[in-house]
Amino acid sequence: MPIRPLAALALALSLALSPAAAPAQMPGDSRLQLLETGDAGRGWLAVGRLNVGENTFCTATLIAPDRVLTAAHCLFEASSGRRVNTGDIEFLAGWRIGRAEAIRGVRRVAIAPGFRMRSGQALSQVANDLAVLELDRPIRLTGLQPLPLASGSPAAGSAVAVVSYARDRAEAPSLQDRCTVMDRRRDGVLVMSCSIDFGASGAPVFSLDGGVPRVVSVISAMAETANGHSMALGMRLDGRVAALMDMLDSPAVQRLGPVAAPDSAGARGSARFVRP
User: Fold this and answer.
1) Model pTM score
2) Alpha-carbon dihedral of residues 20, 21, 22, 27, nearest 10 degrees?
3) How far, CA to CA in Å, does 110 sit from each of 15, 115, 130?
4) CA-to-CA distance for 158 and 225, rounded, in angstroms?
């Protein structure tokens, strides 16, 4: 199953080198809805654009007043594979048509142990493609509440939702309020029918049980089937977000400053999405 990068993830195929694949639509899947008005975006303001350096972005989610969740590969440079300077990362909560509800810098990051950023990235790395970022100041605004994490992982056949920024919709997020978990692999990878593109890396995948959105996964990459359909790849969280939060709270980590998984490695020849 060929895999395509959404931001800086170094994988075998690049979207820039081959025609775009059609999403793998499942019965009941909805279309993308652009959240460009205040009314449309209400309830999703904790999802924001994560600007990385001067030319790229991903999607990220506020999960605590001073913590955001995204994909680990968003934090690496494309040309060198080096970690992006923490001071060059900026979270724009609820970014919409030139305005954000809050803008914050990033103090430190924690990357899931086991993630390795390198050329020819394997499918197995998707399961570890997680990072939690500590903001330079908490976001405490009425109407902009952190989004909770789900306690479990969705089963195959479950309906989920995705809010993301992406190519051709970089100035406002889009919501797909129903797509489908097609497979829950033993290696921890979730295969979904959600419609994604460059910039959607790090986007939150939600369950909507009881009408309350809870984060169940993070978008990592896109795979293409033999018949030309695209599928979104994410990971089971399985308590790893809490472990990353604990890493940031560790007194030893606070003394050391910026945090990364000890075995994160450099990449070669990766592809990133350039911000307009």
Assistant:
1) 0.85
2) -150
3) 28, 11, 9
4) 20
Answer positive or negative: Cα dihedral of 193, 269, 127, 244. Answer: negative
Token readout for 68 is 């955001």
Cα within 13 Å of Cα(43), Cβ side: 13
Domains annotated for the chain, with CATH where assigned, are: 3-256 (2.40.10.10)
CB 107, CB 254: distance < 8 Å: no
Residue pLDDT, tens place only, 47-98: 999 999 888 999 999 999 999 999 999 998 766 778 999 999 999 999 999 9
Can you say how many angstroms the Cα of residue 169 is from the centroid of all Cα atoms in its chain?
15
Q: Which two tokens stand for residue 71?
A: 């994909």
Cα–Cα dist 164/166, whole Å: 6
What are the phi and psi torsion angles at 141 (to 5°)? -130, 135
